[in-house]
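Hey, I was hoping to borrow your eyes for a little while. No rush at all, and the record is pasted right below:
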Amino acid sequence: MMSLPIFKTPDLITSSALTTFEFSPGTADEATALLAAGPEAIFHRFLRDQESEPTLLAARRVIHAFLPAPAPGAPSDVSVEAIVAEVDAVRDDLMVPLRAFGDLRPELRQAVLRQRAPLGLIGGCWLDTLSQPATQPSVIVNRLFGQHFLVKGRGRPGASLHRRRRRALDDLGVHLPEITAADFMDKARARPLTALHADFYVALSRLPASFMPEVVGVHYAFHALGVDDVLTGLPAPLPEPALRAVLAEYLDLTRRSASGPADRARLLAAVRLVLDLEREHVAMLGDLADWHAGLSLDAQVAEIFARHAPYAGLHHRDLRVAGRPLTETFADPGFDVADFLNRFRTSPYLKPTPTGCRFLDAIKFGGPMFAIFDERESAVLKDWVAAVQAGGDLPAVELPVNRVGDPQAARRLTAIENSEPPDVVHAELPEIDDREFFYRLVNIENFPNTLAKARNWALSGFADGEILFAHGAAGRHTDASYFDYTPEALRARVETIYWDKLVNPYEPLTEIPDREQVIFHQKTLALGSLIEAAWVHRIGNLGRDQRPSDDLMFAIYADEMGRGEVRKNHITLIHQALDSMSIDLPHVRDAAFKEQEELPDSHYHFAIGQLCLGLFPDSFYCEILGYNLAIEMYGLGEMRMHEIEKLQAHGFDIGYEEAHLSIDNVSTGHSRQAVDVIISYLDVVERDHGGPAAEREWRRIWRGYASFAYFAEHQLVNSLRDDAELVI
């Protein structure tokens, strides 16, 4: 056997060894078009399209524009104390304006909170997918994941930092749609600078394994500054000492790494970028408050009319101002709100009446425009009408243009337009074998041109699995035969599988295979275990955490990763088991893994299927739910208990097997949770879209289950193939 670099826990990685990002030819033009669409459009695309090459390339360009590589000679001898002092100094400076915002008039404070909301609501997103096959079971990734688990509300629906901040904003009078909504940025009245800052943080969340030093720096600086905690009045989600401890641990790890000096320089650059961004944004919030405070009544009314005019539609078809129908006025692409207000002030609609005027009557309860304007807007309009009716020589309406933050935004937009990361390579995906395919999937951030092949592979697996819709009842450990869904029917099927196929058949082994047979069998299973939970690691990230089922799936993944504790991480446990059998391997992220000779080629397909499935949680959400049920149940009962007997007989580590036999239990464990996830999801679908939609989603869920069964039931699948050949 050739000599290869061997991986041993603990995993002390501090940055990726890969240095290029490989995209398909033609991706550059699509990414350029995406970036040219404007800051808000970029944000929306980043959230709504997480599975395409152009989006990933755009993210790489945004990161490069905000955070170019440290210049030669940049400081690398970075200490925790120096970083903490630098962040503390900026925090002290920011506290003055931040506390002053709390004393603003309610409408001004709401304007500040609304503007900040896009950043506060995405806080922490950079950790969403840092935990992945390429980075586990890294010491620093697990430390960060432990904090991410807390920020995500420990997987409890509605308990995440995002949800807590949203509720705080609601209590303060700032009501916004879901962050993935097409009009989220519009409702937040986000300035271009706000959107650009958000674009950077979301871009970083798309390539976290490739930018681990930057993620550590951003994580510390953003949370330690705590801008959003002060603005919303919520307690800090992560205490500064806990943040500092992770920072210190990472810096200590870099001092044992060959890439340590470069990693520390990158981290420091990221910390300083966040300090610059937060100073820039808080200053912009102050300018915004001043701008709103300086608005005349005319200007306030103009802003209200401009905001509502696009939604007027045909509701005013019988009304005219200065002889022009309001339907034409409001539909005019060149709608001049100042000119309209000048004409509206002299219209009959504002002439005094015993109840105020026709316009005010229209917006009162019972009027045709009731509830069009909120309470604050109605009060402004009432004051404006009173000023108009007071008479006198009214000056022509002149409206100030809101350019708050525009100079800074223009500078950052120019940087994005000119961004050409030198590490981006364009190449067609060559013909590759399973080992190369597996390597690229593990390191998918660096090989986005592999995504199309991965998608097709997953689709092929679903098609294969559907053969078991008719024949799956004959499975040894699964039953993928199709049935009509009800919650009761699903629970009944799971109970039947559990007792009839997994538990009742169990009898203690009367004969233990020899040592080499046991080791070989473990080798056939190891590849899938080394990428534990790969099928679910991208569910629940920003843009994918709006359903209760998303939080429940994230909680399952968190358990698989030990909730941030390396010793409980299931990938740590499988490495311990392999080590007890003297099976030495490189880490799956290393190119050397392609040359390993311990694990058989025949079992790459199963692991590849998991990796492909996990890359498309938007496209294959239903299939992932079904696959998750199948894999969580598979190791219960007879098979797992026999494996424990065999390992114990030869003195091998059984921690991995015992952990799954326990945590996957059908009473309260992952198997039960997998059922709850499916029921929760289909309940939402049925309530929102009706029974037929739920039936369609159920069929997809069950083909996800069947796609796992197809790999697990070798004898059944082979017999079906033989029967098909006989028929032919």
